[in-house]
Amino acid sequence: MDWLWTFPQLDEDSMRALRMTIDDSFRGFTRTYGDAIQQIFEPLRYFLIQSEWLMLNTPWFVVIVAIAALAWLASRKWTIVLGSVITLLLIGYFGMWEDTMRTVSMIFVCTVISLVLGIPIGIVMARSNRVQSIISPVLDVMQTLPSFVYLIPVVMLLGIGRVPGLLAVVIYAIPPIIRLTNLGIRLVDKEVLEASDAFGSSSWQKLYNVQLPLALPTIMAGINQTIMMALAMVVIASMIGVQGLGQPVLRAINNQYFTMGMFNGLAIVGIAIIFDRISQAFGKRIQKHQEHAHG
Length: 295
Hints:
This protein is mainly alpha-helical. It contains 13 helices and no strands. The protein is globular and about 70 Å long.
């Protein structure tokens, strides 16, 4: 009667053989195509290095003024501008400026890549139910797979360094912008689309002039979530060589440095709050503008 209490499973020898087959196949693929794949991602490495160089070599007060100006243009609220400036000044005062700039450059590059890839995929999903049925399960897996698992294939393919971390962050952060772009376009009022058709708009004119502008608040929410998820992945990506605020946090965990971990963790929180408030405020301004424009 043991079968009532013991779940039937593959025997150990068969399981070991299956694992070895899969692992050997992936290692063989890596040895054969690893160098070619690295060359494909070389432009991303160059983009990240140049972005990091720009952030590190720009005077600190210029960076603060630029972020304050961005906060003002996005929100038109002095509280957000003042909070952003104070947060950045505290980060610099406690000796975390360079790591913060590396993290900001990583988030910037990851966000750009996520938008360039995610928005077109979301548009295609919105225009085809079949494509949505194919991509949605993939996004489900990407959002539920433990974040550490992303590191295994990229490290085996590309080794330790910036590019593997960049790819891991993008894979982790891209699903929200795809989903919310798709959702925003699908939620556009059918009557508005019918009016656009009545005026003789082509499919691309309808997309560019009607659907995307009306879906923009929802897309902005997707951008906000993508930035937040990228920041959440920064500490984990530091395990494979991504420089920035994540590495001091990782050292603090390994060596039980409470103060170092708290300070750098709070710096990540501060950057996340700045990006969150700026993107949310910009999304709300766009939504108010759309409501005003359409009565």
